What we know:
Elements: H1 2-15, H2 26-34, E1 36-40, E2 44-48, H3 50-56, H4 59-62, H5 84-105, H6 113-125, H7 135-145, H8 153-167, H9 174-185, H10 211-224, H11 232-237, E3 239-242, E4 245-249, H12 253-271, H13 274-294, H14 303-307, H15 313-319, H16 326-336, E5 342-349, H17 354-360, H18 363-368, E6 381-389, E7 403-405, E8 408-413, E9 429-437, H19 443-464
Parallel strand pairs: 4-7
Antiparallel strand pairs: 1-2, 3-4, 5-9, 6-9, 7-8
Helix pairs in contact: 1-2, 3-6, 5-6, 5-10, 6-9, 7-13, 8-9, 10-12, 13-16
Amino acid sequence: RCTRHAHMSKRSMLRRGFTDLSDLDCDDALVLDRTKYVNDPIHGYIALNEDMLQFIDTPQFQRLRHLKQLGSAYSVFPGGSHNRFEHCIGTAHLASEVVQGLAQRQPDLDIDSRDIRCVTLAGLCHDLGHGPFSHLFDNAFIPRARPGVEWSHEVGSEMMLHHTIDTNNIDIDDADVRLIKQLIRGSSRRVDGEKMFLFDIVANQRNGIDVDKFDYIQRDCYNVGVRSSYDFSRLMLNSRVIDDEICYNTKESFNLAEMFHTRYSLHKRIYSHRAAKAIEFMLVDALLVADPVLGISQAITDPQLYQMLTDDIVRDIERSAAPELKEARDLISRIHTRDIYKFVDEFLLPPELVPAVGMVVNEAEIVGHRSDNDDFVERDVLVDVCRIHYGMKKENPVDHINFYSKFNSTEKFSIASEFVSLCVPEKYEEHILRIFTRTPAKRNQIQRAARRLIERLNTDIAARSPGSTPQNLTPNRGLTLPSNLVLADTKRRRLQFH
């Protein structure tokens, strides 16, 4: 039997560059032959071992091929067509590289095969629970479809991990499953019996430096055509464990600052793009209309239903002839014909005004500031406060990183921002008040009413702070709509033949 298997696998091994099997016994040949390789545009050739393939070759994991990584932003950036499938494989690859690199550089860490296997599988399975259009599903749709229900894609990942193991009879120890789930969630607190530095690899709760971020930043930049100036491979090579925590060489301090800036820049320019947000609102509206008919939100507690829930839900709505779904079909048709909700106005919020704006500026208040000739209603208005930061809300993530010196690689210490660069930001978080409309023809009316509301808010703030100069919300002249603006009719742009 050994000879037969060696003969059968010889041809495939020759294709991979092996010219002689004489130095390999039968078991070695079989193990090598079970490894598969995929060519990834970000990381090059990635080896998929048998542990990984047990999960990859399942319907639950293959579902990730049908979930766009960028969600609604793909409708704005045509190159952003990549999916959660390749991101998860890339994350697993980097997770394996990091933990094996640490094992080679620091044998005293006693990293064993179980550690490597669990960290790799955590990277592979960390996004199993994402819903249609990625973060749109858990951040925008579920809170409105099922108010009061606390749910996130991490919860969904745990549910789908168990479902994948059970339905495909994957041979894995219960203790390993528990560790994989903990690694996906991340932890900054001691986990009994586990090496704490392993929790810094996939979902780092200490400072946000993890392989999930390494992969999606590089992959998203590559696909949308944005240049990235930081190099994650240097970070991986210049890291070591000190006191059960992954620390970095001091010379990587600016590289780390640049990574967090790149994250912020992607959120600012890509993930929170105005048109992408407008399309996101349309998709959420369509899903909310379809939810009572298709039971979309109920799938979050049923893994068999959730397994079938992908971005193709839009196609399901389009294919349906149910009269109850007509409004949803019309919304999707508007997206296809680029008749999308329109951006109206935005204001950068000073931190001290965020609570006041959140309480005062809403759809009803804007309607309350209409002029006599305006005819828009609450349904026409959408108010959104977009929160963008460097990864740790108002804090500088670099302040939470520990470093080591090339002169002493056993002692960790932090580095103050002024020693990284004198050009670092003063703030690491911003809130942007944005106003959209479902009815593009009423954009002028809504902007005028919103600015009257903002003017009243500024007056109220000044009255509460006599003798001081409080922060005001100032309209952006570049966004001011001309009073005679008329939206072009797309039909008029087409040539008329008689």
